[in-house]
Amino acid sequence: MEILVCIKRVPDTAENEFELNSAGNDIDRDDLVYSVNEWDNYAVEEAIQIVGEHGGSVTVVSVGDDESEEVLRREMAMGADNGILLSDDAFEDSDSRGIASILKAEVEKGNYDLILTGAQADDGAAEVGGMLAAMLDLPYASLVNQIDIDGDKHIKVGREIEGGNKEMNEIELPCVLSIQTGINEPRYVGIRGIRKVAQIEIPVKGASDLGIDAGSVGKDGAKMKRIDYFVPDLGEGAEMLEGSTDEIIEKLIEKLKSKGGLA
Amino acid sequence: MAQIFAYIPHKDGVADDIAYEIQAAAGKLDSNAQVTAIVTGSGDTLDKVAGHLTSLFKEVIKIGHDDLAYPNAEVVRKALCNVLPSDAIILAPHNTFGMDLVPGLSIKFDSACASDVIDFEGTEGATLKIVRQVLGGIISTHNDLDISNGAVIAIRPGAFAPVEDGSEGGTIVDKSGDAGDISTKRRFLEIVEAEVGDVDITKSDVLVSIGRGIEEEENIGVAQELAEAMGAVVSCSRPIVDAKWLEKSRQVGTSGQTVKPKVYLALGISGSFQHMGGIKGDPFIIAINKNANAPIFQVADVGIIGDILEFMPELTEKIKDL
């Protein structure tokens, strides 16, 4: 099974406090901690497990700047065999459609049975996988939390749907799946593992290498353009309890008592 | 502006409540718009839901086919491509079905795509101004959407205040004959129901709910002690289940349980819309979180900025001393 996993380098929401920059047109990106998108990490783990059991290879690909190389290398340390970086000034400010069309060009250069993406990334749009599948005319399933390989013609996939239920589907290969968190337990990657793959060459491809018209991607090609960032109006918001820990706990207990929070 | 279509999901012959929110969203998008509902399915249940929707929409398009009995997004997409004009503005819910349908549909129509939209702020020419959130709801963004060739837009459940049920007396248009070839390479097999856990969190009046802020599996015992002291039950957000620290049956959210407690103590939970979507009945929400910008503070009644690992043991002790 030849598997391609599309990954993205994102600001880590667990490690950062986000603020707007002084111009208000972006978040303040100085000193942000970046990591591989959490959903993508589950997708890579799933690919490695499938190849471990059924043979084949795992390739990780990312659309991004030079710094995206570090997340490609991290996933290679997990066990992905190859990494590819798709990078070009023309790719900047692409919308989901732009990203999907860049990925499509790379997919067509390979011969993949399975193409995985994370179910969503930092933009919370959950679009790239479904767009990529439609561009390639391949079947698609989103929010996949179970993959059973039961042949080389088709596989069984479970989709996470509302209420904790699972929707089982049979899907023909090749196909595109977007992976939901919790599908597996991604392995830990240590410094030593990253060192081991430090020397492996990661090819970098730009618009001309991929045969992409620069005007069809990036800001010019985007049908959706981000204008600004803002901190949502908090409305009334919560009544914030302040003071020493003892004072706060005292106030909190009073609230709990009055609202029936203590049996 | 092109015609607006609202894709309405339904189950057992009843339209999803999102129908009222999509109608509200369409009104916000264009107050003069005549919105056409579109429902897919088969047999009596389809007729029933289409009939019901005529009170809310002036026109209801139904597409019936045995292969549409279960809403497999790949099949639905093909049917919509064959029935709707490609420059249509199509609204759908941003839920597990919408995420399956919307991105691919926008590619097939070569139209714009916007997902998890929480507000519309008017149009200028062919540019629609939309609001959506990024980074787990911590920051919002304004975006320009080029709708000159139509758009497929997924709206966030709960973001638009639902309209009242109306008395439109709309008409039903049967487009089943136009569905054409809807064969796909993905076949729906079955629904596997969620496993029942050791505790039913939906029955509890008080929930001590933990999220990423719990940091380590070992700390879950600290939350359990607090819950015991309060006479409450421990529930959690998605990352705790992903890490396999608690059973899926304890997860609150759209992909987990829907709970209706009186008091909800959110400990180290950022408050994503998927999580909040599982909390009904307007409970008294107390949030403790290290991050002052956590979205949970927008919806909580009482907030404390701090480390739950410091607060939980002290709170437990004080409650035991009462």
What can you tell me about this protein's structure?
The complex is a heterodimer of chains A (263) and B (322). The N and C termini of chain A lie far apart (56 Å). The longest helix of chain A is centred in the N-terminal third of the chain and has 17 residues, at 38-54. Chain A is built from eight helices and 13 strands. In chain A, helix 3 crosses helix 4. The radius of gyration of chain A is 21 Å and the shape is globular. Chain A has helices at 38-54, 69-78, 96-107, 128-136, 191-196, 207-210, 218-221, 245-259, and strands spanning 2-7, 9-11, 34-36, 57-63, 82-86, 114-118, 140-149, 154-160, 166-172, 175-179, 204-205, 224-230, 239-240. With 263 residues, chain A is α/β, with parallel strands linked by helices. A nine-stranded mixed beta sheet of chain A has the order 9-8-7-10-6-1-4-5-11, with helices on both faces. Chain B is α/β, with parallel strands linked by helices. Chain B folds into two domains: 4-178, HUPs (Rossmann fold, 3-Layer(aba) Sandwich), CATH 3.40.50; 201-320, Rossmann fold, CATH 3.40.50. Chain B has helices spanning 18-29, 43-53, 73-83, 96-108, 220-230, 238-242, 273-276, 296-299, 308-320, and strands spanning 4-7, 10-11, 14-15, 35-41, 59-64, 89-93, 112-124, 127-134, 139-146, 151-155, 171-174, 186-192, 206-210, 233-236, 263-267, 284-289, 302-305. In chain B, the strands form three sheets. A nine-stranded mixed beta sheet of chain B has the order 9-8-7-10-6-1-4-5-11, sandwiched between helices. A five-stranded parallel beta sheet of chain B has the order 14-13-15-16-17. In chain B, a hairpin with a 4-residue loop joins strand 8 (127-134) and strand 9. The longest helix of chain B has 13 residues, at 96-108. Chain B is elongated. Strand 13 (239-240) of chain A pairs parallel with strand 17 of chain B, so a sheet runs across the interface.
